[in-house]
Design goal:
This protein is mostly beta strands and about 425 residues long. It is built from 4 helices and 27 strands. The two termini are about 45 Å apart.
């Protein structure tokens, strides 16, 4: 027989949301730890352009790069966190093909259908026409009139402010003419001066703005000679701000006709959420775990002793629950050279313990040193409230196992998604 002692232990582990649990052949134990966990992902942790958030960009380091997929057409783009602490595309947008852009995938408040590619009509008779042209040159990307670049919101009534929408992916925007996320701030932070050196610097790695030229009067113009990149800010009812550069200089706040087909680069803001707000309140995700065990008083060599780990989690964010341990075997402080190893095979008369893998506790898995999802580790939805997660555990012992208390410490981890 293996007699069980009961005791309570309380522990706090920095930077983890955990409930610590001691299995003393099997003992009972409770712990309570609270952790206000913000978004921890960086651009290395996302796959799609549409996954980008301000927090993800803010968590990334200047100089970090990634390659992401635009879910609207499965094109891939390289991005980088630039010296202005914002994340920028380092390739020109090449979205084409009469696609309907929606708020779920694009920087739009309502659906907008991109026009078909065509080189004709980029002239002064079509100041407010939605037009785009793609010559198939991936490096130079596509060319858009300002009305098209702003997803139809840059109309004649908008003459001195920012267009509210753009054809950028969700989470990204056309740069404004000034302030955070603008070409002016970017070039200043990156040390791109309005001279020959600045022109050379902006055109090559890591910024990679090509001399894409433009579309003017139904023809490509200035390819390999200059670059022209739209902002989202109107200068007048006929002109909008853009970034032009030539071999001799860079002009981050210039303006010109809206009907010209120009290139598009998109920016995702980093920094703090308060930088672009007059009033801002940051609410952090919170996870609270109260973890306990429920085991029988005696372990018998004739049966498998069963119980459970119960973790009650309070959260206002989606999360996932995992178990791990630094010491996988149950060991005794008084009995040396004898232990109950973690195992997926529990049989009466043998020394083993494990985490149940089904509701009936008829199959088990061996716990590991790495946080692992087990049966009943369903993720929480993020709806405020409490959810009880219960993990079955079992142990079998041999008749020759010396009497004592055999224990380990299991960590219950709730990780915000």
């Amino acid at each position: 027989m293996l007699r069980i002692q009961k005791k309570k232990i309380k522990a706090v582990i920095p930077l983890l949301c955990v409930g610590m649990l001691v299995l003393s052949g099997m003992t009972t134990f409770t712990s309570l730890t609270t952790y206000a966990a913000g978004e921890t992902r960086t651009i290395a942790d996302i796959t799609n352009m549409q996954d980008m958030t301000q927090s993800i960009c803010a968590n990334s380091k200047v100089g970090d790069t990634a390659t992401l997929t635009d879910t609207r057409d499965n094109s891939t783009y390289t991005i980088r966190k630039h010296e202005d602490k914002n994340c920028w595309m380092t390739q020109n947008l090449r979205l084409t093909g009469e696609k309907t852009l929606t708020p779920a995938d694009s920087d739009v408040a309502s659906d907008y259908t991109l026009p078909a590619s065509g080189i004709n009509g980029f002239d002064e008779s079509n100041y407010y026409a939605s037009q785009m042209y793609y010559a198939g040159d991936e490096a130079n990307g596509a060319y858009y009139s300002w009305t098209a670049a702003t997803a139809g919101t840059g109309d004649a009534d908008l003459n001195s402010s920012d267009a509210p929408s753009s054809i950028c992916p969700k989470g990204w925007k056309l740069p404004p003419n000034s302030g955070n996320g603008s070409y002016t701030n970017f070039t200043s932070a990156a040390g791109i001066a309005n001279n020959v050196d600045g022109s050379n610097k902006i055109r090559f790695a890591p910024y990679n703005f090509p001399y894409a030229g433009s579309v003017l009067d139904s023809a490509l113009d200035g390819v390999s000679s200059f670059g022209l990149y739209w902002s989202r800010t109107a200068y007048s009812d006929t002109d909008a701000y853009h970034l032009p550069f030539t071999s001799s200089g860079v002009y981050p706040a210039f303006y010109n006709y809206r009907y010209v087909g120009r290139s598009v680069r998109c920016v995702a803001l980093g920094g703090s959420l308060e930088e672009d707000s007059n009033v801002a309140v940051r609410v952090q995700p919170v996870l609270t775990i109260d973890a306990t065990t429920d085991m029988k008083e005696l372990a018998s060599a004739a049966t498998i002793t069963t119980g459970s780990i119960s973790a009650t989690i309070s959260a206002n964010t989606a999360y996932q629950v995992m178990l791990s341990t630094d010491q996988t075997s149950l060991k005794s402080a008084t009995v040396t050279d004898t232990e109950i190893p973690a195992s997926s095979t529990l049989q009466p008369g043998t020394n083993a313990w494990g985490i149940a893998t089904n509701a009936e506790a008829t199959a088990y898995a061996a716990i590991t040193n790495s946080p692992t999802v087990y049966y009943s580790s369903a993720t929480g939805s993020g709806t405020p409230g409490q959810t009880v997660h219960q993990f079955g555990i079992g142990a079998s012992i041999s008749p020759a196992l010396p009497a004592g208390t055999y224990s380990t410490i299991v960590t219950v981890t709730a990780a915000a998604l």
